[in-house]
Amino acid sequence: MIIWITGMSGAGKTTIAKALLKILKPDLPQTILVDGDEVRTLFGNDLGYEESQRKKQIYRLQRIAKWLDASDMLVIVAALYSHPDLLNWNRQNFSKYFEVYVQASIGFLQERDSKGLYEGAKLGKINNVVGIDIPWHEPAKSDMKVDATLIENPTTIASRIKNLCAQMLTLEV
Fold first, then answer.
1. Which helix (H) or strand (E) holds 33?
2. Most buried in the list 24, 53, 152, 159, measured by CB within 10 Å?
3. Per-domain residue ranges of the chain
4. 91-150: per-residue pLDDT in tens?
5. What is the gyration radius of the CA atoms in the chain, in angstroms?
6. How many CA atoms, within 13 angstroms, populate the side-chain half-sphere of residue 66?
7. CB within 8 A of 138, min separation 6: which ones?
8. pTM for the whole thing?
9. Measured distance CA(172)–CA(159) in Å, rounded
């Protein structure tokens, strides 16, 4: 099974994914987290941030997730870029698929801006920022939406994801 968590930079994808890993791992030791930033690092940061490069990054995440899924791993993916074609591919190619959209306005993310990404874009120092000069494609068919502006405890969100996935995961909740 693949649990794909998407949202713009700073929305909380990785934080939620780590909380989910923590609550699933004791019952399902075959659970693994594939984080977009970590995969970039793993491959030597060989891709840029232009839209075409972001698509290549998602292709990597998809291939890694598909390979792990075929090995009966439960895969949690935290990924920024969400072009509709890529998300549709996920639904068609993963054995079981659950999509979580961590939704936040660009204004909220600019205020939060933990990485200084949006400020850098505003000052013209950083290009290729999703939601600024690369279009953000809001997921249309997410199985769950999380409102990042509510600033909920990540473990609470992770528990909701687990509960919604319980039948697919064949877990007691």
1. strand 31-35
2. 24
3. 2-169
4. 999 989 999 999 999 889 899 888 888 888 888 898 888 988 888 999 999 999 999 999
5. 16
6. 12
7. 82, 101, 103
8. 0.92
9. 12
Nearest-angstrom CA–CA distance, 127 and 84: 22
CA dihedral defined by 89, 91, 93, 99, rounded to 10 degrees?
100
Tokens of 150: 């509510």
Q: How many CB atoms lie within 10 A of CB 106?
A: 15
Cα dihedral sign, 48-50-53-54: positive
Mean pLDDT of 34-62: 92
- Res 171: pLDDT: 52
For residues 2-15, give the mean pLDDT: 94
What fold, for 2-169? Rossmann fold (3.40.50)
Cα dist from 42 to 36, 50, 60, 67, 70, whole Å? 10, 19, 11, 17, 21
Q: Which tokens belong to 8?
A: 């713009």
